[in-house]
Design brief:
This protein has 3 domains: 175 residues, Multidrug efflux transporter AcrB transmembrane domain (Multidrug efflux transporter AcrB transmembrane fold); 307 residues, no CATH class; 192 residues, Multidrug efflux transporter AcrB transmembrane fold, CATH 1.20.1640.10. It has 26 helices and 9 strands. The chain has a 4-stranded antiparallel sheet with strand order 7-8-6-9, with helices on both faces. A 3-stranded antiparallel sheet has the order 4-1-5. The chain has a two-stranded antiparallel ribbon with strand order 2-3. Helix 20 runs parallel beside helix 22. The two termini are 23 Å apart. The C terminus is likely disordered.
Length: 776
C-alpha cells in the first residue's frame, strides 16, 4: 500500500490535485444545508430519563424556559418613573414573538391575594402606576409579605425589580434579550441598568457568539501558523501546501457531517479548531524533512520518495493513535460527543491521506527554480534551533539519571494534583467576567432568590395532594430547603395555601383537614384567581405538585451535591401515600449530562490509552518500547491535569473533550523519535552516532512542530469565550509538555538504558550510512 500511494502521488500529481479540488467543491456544496442546534438539552439522548422528566414537568405544569429580566438602580426602583418604565417594557415584552404572554410574571401581570371583609380577593399586584414614592414602597412591602413573590419579583432593598419572561423556544433567548434591551433603552431614562440572566439566555448567547468567535480566531490561528511556517521554511509556495491541506481537511470533514444530515451542535462546531493543528502537524513533518534534505539531491521527486518512505509508517501510526483517541468518544452516552469524536477521527484520517497524496503532488508540480533556495544548504551556520537541540542533546546525555529522577518526582506530585481536580461547570462561566451576562448574573443573584432553577416533582394518585399528611410533608421539606444556604427561594402550592391563611386568619399556616385544603383552593379560584396560575404548581387532578427551587449559584457541583443530599433525605424519610419523586429543570439537566460526559470521557481515555499501548507494541514489535513510547503521553496527561488540580480550575466540558486531543498529539512525537532512533541504529550499529543523527533530523522536526502549534494557537488566549481560551491554553501546554518529554525524557531513557535498548550487533549491519545521512 505504501509503495502504491507514494508512486501515485508523485507520478500522477495533476490527477491528485484535480481529484482533491473536485472533492473539495463537493464538500463545500453541502454547507448551505447546515442545521445548527446550540441547545445543551440535546447533549443528552431525548430518551434519557432526565430529559423525559424535564419534558413531563413542562407538559404537566405548562412551564417553559424563562428569561429573567432585571431593572436595577442603587437609589431604588420603586418610584413612579421607574415603575412606569417597567410597565412599558413589560407591555412591549407581551407583544414580542416567542413570548408566552399569559405566563409572564411581572408587577402588572401577577395576582396578589388580599383579605376582603372576612374572605379573600385576588387582584393584580400593580393595577395602576403609583403616583408617589410612598405608593411605590407599598408595592414593595406587598411583595415581601407574599411568599409567592418574595425573592422573585424584587430585591428586599428595593433596588431591583424583575420580569420573568417565559419563551416558546430557548433558541430565541439571545435574540429576545436584545429586543428587550432595545425596549429598555427607550423607556429607562433615570440611570437604571437593564439586566438579563438565566441559563436559557446564557446558553443561547454562547451558541451565537461561538460561531462568531470561530470565524475570527480559527483564521487568525491559521495566519499565525502560516507566518511561523514561513519563518522556518522561507518559502511561501511550499508552505502553502500545509495550509491548503488544513483547509481541505476541515471542509471535507464538515461537508461530510452536514451532507450526512447531522446537526452542527456546540461540540461539532469545534471540529475545525481540533483538525487544524493535527493537519498542520502531519504535513509539517514532511515539509521539515524535505527542507533538511532537498539541497543534498536537488531532485524534488527523489527527495520526496526518500522522505515519504522514511515517514510513512510513523505518520500512519501517529494518525491511527489519534483516530483511536477520538473514535473512542463514539462510545460516550452523549450524542453530540459521539458525532464529534467520529468526525474528528474521520478528519484525522483525511489529513493523513492528504498529507501523503496532495502534499507530494503539490511539491512535485513545483518547478526546480521555485525550490532553488529551499532547504538548509549552508554549512556551519548555527541557528537558535540548532543551539537548543545541542543543549537538549548535551543535557540528556550528561544528566540523564538526574532528569529521570526529577521527572519521576514531578510525576508523583502531579498525580497528587490530579486527585484534587473538581468536576464542575456553569454555562454562565463560559463568558469572561467582564461580559454583560456575567455581570448581570452576579448582580441579580445577589439581590433575588436566584436565576438558576430546578424542580422537585411529587407524583401520586388523584387528589392525594389535598391530603394534610402530604401537604405537611411537602411544607416541611420546603422549609428545610429554604433554610439551606445553597437555596435562594422556593415556591409551591403550599405558598398559596399559606398566603390565603395569612389573609383570612392573620398567620402563616395551612389547614389540617382535607376539606379545609380543598376549600382554600376553591376559594382561590372563585375569588378572581386564575386557575392556570394555580395549575402551574399542582395538576388539575391534584395528583402532582412540584417545588420550584431557585439558586443564586449555577455551578453543577452545587446542584449535584444538593440533589444527592435531598435524594438521601427522601430515601430516609419517604413521602406518604406511596408518592414518587423526580428531579427536573435545566440546572439539573446540566448536572446529568456533565456526569455522563465526565464518566464517558474517563472510560474513553482509559480505553484509548490501552489501545494505543497495544498499537505501539505492535509497531515496535516490543512491549518494552511500547511502554517507553507511552512515557511522554503519560507525563503530558498527568502533568496537565495535575496543573488543573493545583490551580483550582474546574474540570469542565472543554477540558473533558480536550483529553482526547492530549492523547493524540502527545504520542505523535514519541512515535517519530523512537521509530527513527531504531531505524538509524539498525544502520549505524552505533548508539552515540544514532542519537547525534536523531537530534539533527527528527529533533529538529519535533521542535519546529512544537513551536508552530504552541505559538500558532496563542491568538485563542484573546477570545472572549472562556472555552476557546481553554483550548488555546491546552494546545500550548500539550505541545510544550509533550515536546519536552520527547526531547529530554526519551533521550535520557535511551542514554541511561542504552545497553538494553540499543544492543550492538557482533557484525555491524551498516546498510548505507551515506544514504542514512542524506535521508535524516
Amino acid at each position: 500500500m505504501k509503495k502504491q500511494i507514494i508512486n501515485f502521488s508523485i507520478n500522477s500529481p495533476k490527477t491528485v490535485i484535480v481529484l482533491s479540488i473536485l472533492l473539495f467543491l463537493a464538500a463545500l456544496a453541502q454547507f448551505p444545508k447546515v442545521k445548527i442546534d446550540t441547545n445543551p438539552e440535546h447533549m443528552l439522548s431525548q430518551n434519557e430519563e432526565v430529559i423525559l422528566h424535564h419534558h413531563e414537568l413542562k407538559e404537566k405544569f405548562k412551564l417553559e424556559d424563562i428569561l429573567v429580566v432585571g431593572i436595577h438602580k442603587e437609589s431604588g426602583v420603586f418610584n413612579p418613573k421607574t415603575l412606569e418604565a417597567v410597565a412599558l417594557i413589560t407591555e412591549e415584552a407581551l407583544e414580542m414573538e416567542g413570548v408566552i404572554a399569559n405566563d409572564v410574571v411581572a408587577l402588572t401581570e401577577v395576582d396578589d391575594i388580599v383579605s376582603d371583609g372576612g374572605t379573600i380577593k385576588v387582584e393584580t399586584l400593580m393595577e395602576e402606576i403609583p403616583e408617589t414614592d410612598e405608593e411605590g414602597r407599598q408595592i414593595l412591602e406587598r411583595i415581601k409579605l407574599n411568599p409567592l413573590f418574595n425573592g422573585k419579583l424584587a430585591s428586599d432593598d428595593g433596588t431591583l425589580v424583575t420580569i420573568f419572561v417565559p419563551i416558546e423556544s430557548k433558541e430565541i433567548s439571545a435574540e429576545l434579550a436584545e429586543k428587550l434591551k432595545v425596549s429598555s433603552e427607550t423607556h429607562l431614562k433615570n440611570g437604571e441598568d437593564f439586566l438579563v440572566a438565566g441559563l436559557p439566555v446564557a446558553e443561547s448567547t454562547f451558541g451565537a457568539e461561538m460561531f462568531k468567535q470561530m470565524a475570527v480566531y480559527a483564521p487568525l490561528a491559521g495566519l499565525v501558523i502560516f507566518l511561523l511556517l514561513l519563518f522556518f521554511f522561507r518559502s511561501a509556495k511550499v508552505i502553502a501546501a500545509p495550509m491548503i491541506i488544513a483547509v481541505m481537511t476541515v471542509v471535507y470533514t464538515m461537508g461530510a457531517l452536514i451532507g450526512l444530515g447531522f446537526t452542527v451542535h456546540i461540540m461539532s462546531s469545534m471540529i475545525p479548531i481540533f483538525l487544524m493543528p493535527i493537519a498542520v502537524l502531519d504535513s509539517t513533518h514532511i515539509v521539515s524533512e524535505f527542507y533538511d534534505t532537498y539541497q543534498k539531491t536537488k531532485d524534488s521527486k527523489k527527495t520526496l520518495r526518500e522522505v515519504l518512505n522514511t515517514l510513512f509508517m510513523p505518520m500512519l501510526f501517529t494518525s491511527l493513535t489519534t483516530i483511536v483517541g477520538f473514535a473512542s468518544l463514539a462510545f460516550t452516552p452523549i450524542p453530540p460527543v459521539e458525532v464529534f469524536g467520529s468526525f474528528v477521527a474521520l478528519g484525522v484520517f483525511l489529513a493523513w491521506l492528504l498529507t501523503m497524496t496532495f502534499l507530494p503532488a503539490f511539491i512535485s508540480l513545483m518547478p526546480a527554480k521555485a525550490l532553488e533556495n529551499f532547504g538548509t544548504a549552508e554549512e556551519g551556520k548555527e541557528t537558535l534551533l540548532d543551539k537548543f537541540l545541542a543543549f537538549t542533546f548535551r543535557v540528556s546525555k550528561t544528566n540523564g539519571k538526574l532528569i529521570l529522577a526529577v521527572v519521576t518526582i514531578l510525576f508523583v506530585i502531579s498525580g497528587y494534583g490530579v486527585t484534587k481536580i473538581i468536576v464542575n461547570d456553569n454555562p454562565v462561566n463560559w463568558f469572561k467576567p467582564d461580559h454583560e451576562l456575567r455581570k448581570a448574573d452576579v448582580l441579580m443573584n445577589s439581590k433575588i432568590g436566584g436565576t438558576y432553577m430546578s424542580h422537585l416533582v411529587f407524583t401520586g394518585e388523584e387528589d392525594v395532594m389535598k391530603s394534610p399528611e402530604v401537604v405537611n410533608y411537602i411544607r416541611d421539606l420546603q422549609d428545610k430547603m429554604d433554610a439551606d444556604e445553597r437555596v435562594g427561594a422556593t415556591t409551591s402550592v403550599i405558598d398559596i395555601l399559606e398566603k390565603i391563611n395569612l389573609e383570612l386568619l392573620g398567620k402563616i399556616d395551612i389547614p389540617q383537614t382535607l376539606e379545609g385544603i380543598a376549600q382554600y383552593l376553591f376559594l382561590f379560584e372563585i375569588s378572581g384567581g386564575d386557575p392556570e396560575d394555580l395549575f402551574k404548581f399542582v395538576t388539575p387532578e391534584y395528583s402532582d405538585v412540584h417545588i420550584w427551587i431557585q439558586m443564586p449559584k449555577g455551578d453543577n457541583k452545587i446542584m449535584h451535591d444538593f440533589a444527592l443530599e435531598y435524594e438521601n433525605y427522601l430515601a430516609e424519610n419517604p413521602p406518604p401515600e406511596n408518592i414518587q419523586t423526580y428531579w427536573a429543570g435545566l440546572n439539573y439537566v446540566n448536572v446529568v449530562w456533565q456526569d455522563k460526559m465526565v464518566g464517558g470521557m474517563g472510560k474513553s481515555l482509559i480505553g484509548s490509552f490501552v489501545m494505543v499501548l497495544v498499537m505501539m507494541t505492535l509497531l515496535f514489535r516490543s512491549f518494552k518500547w511500547g511502554i517507553i513510547s507511552m512515557v511522554p503521553l503519560s507525563v503530558t496527561i498527568v502533568g496537565i491535569y495535575g496543573l488543573i488540580g493545583f490551580s483550582g480550575k474546574f474540570y469542565d466540558m472543554p477540558i473533558a473533550v480536550l483529553s482526547s486531543l492530549t492523547l493524540g498529539l502527545s504520542i505523535d512525537f514519541a512515535i517519530h523519535f523512537i521509530k527513527r532512533a531504531r531505524d538509524i541504529h539498525a544502520e549505524t550499529n552505533d548508539f552515540a552516532k544514532t542519537i547525534d543523527l536523531l537530534f539533527e533530523s527528527t529533533g529538529r522536526a519535533i521542535s519546529r512542530n512544537v513551536m508552530i502549534i504552541a505559538i500558532g494557537f496563542l491568538p485563542l488566549f484573546f477570545a472572549t469565550l472562556v472555552p476557546y481560551k481553554t483550548v488555546g491554553t491546552f494546545f500550548f501546554l500539550i505541545m510544550m509538555m509533550s515536546g519536552f518529554a520527547t526531547l529530554f525524557i526519551l533521550p535520557s531513557i535511551s542514554n541511561v538504558f542504552s545497553k538494553s535498548l540499543f544492543k550492538t550487533q557482533d557484525k555491524p549491519q551498516i546498510k548505507n550510512l551515506e544514504h542514512s545521512l542524506e535521508v535524516n
